[in-house]
What does this fold into?
Amino acid sequence: MELIKNNKIIDFVKYSYFTFAISLLLIVGSICLIAFKGFSFGVDFSGGTLVQIQYTNDAPLAQIRSLLERDANFKGSQVSEFGSKQEILIKIPFSPNLKTSDVDAQISKLLEQSGTFEIRRVDSVGPKVGKELKEKGILALSLAMLAILAYVSFRYEWKFALAAVLALFHDVLISSACIILFKVDFNLEVVAALLTIIGYSINDTIIIFDRIREQVIGGKANDLKSVINDGLSSTLSRTLLTSLTVLFVVATLYVFGGEIIVGFSLPMLVGVVVGTYSSLFFAPRLIILFGFSLQDYRSKLLEKQKRAKEKQKMREMYENGRV
It folds into this structure.
């Protein structure tokens, strides 16, 4: 199936002048959002207790907040709807005086006058565990970036690798900023989504880089812009079909998965769109800006092919007993 004919060449490089400016604006906007507004860290990272409660009628949020403020152990708790007006989520800050085993009973007693309800979930994380999870989350994201930098450098060259990693940084940054806009807690689900976006986006970029390398080896064009346009155009149908398929799945998760997995589905939804866009417009533009030399790269690839053939010839001679 082809959405766009492979022999139709689109001038992506021309459009990338405008899209690069848009990307820079999105990056600056995302950094400002993270710096000035910041993430709302979930219990996974900040420590504390989450209590999910379902009322038989609409939950009286104001009354619940008022009742919780009367108890020192629950002072400062955040109360919000969780998918429906009958269901709420209480985020209780960590308190050394609050035992996890007692939270269920204390909440039931404290809120008994607010209506008929059922406690559906109680999750607690200590501040030490939360700090360790935060450090491991940052480490996982950093190691994933470094591993991709090393892999792409080995497979292509460092300018390709740097462009690919900066494009991934672009995708992760914008996807992270969207959870601030939509007021979603930064928790382990978000980290899992960001790692998945890194894997998804680099796959798209690698396929495009592969096609560009084939064009360089084939020597069909001596102009970098023509090579990039041809590489992107020939893989465009495959890129769009893959992205649309993933997008439909993630959109289904976001719409029907409910609040419980919104920390994963929302950044994924944004990440699939941004990742596809960056593979087509941002990463190729960076290659041009880094001063990539088509002739030098072609010479390097041809030399590599020559060494591989000589090695293969020597192996055949050795196997035939001629060496």
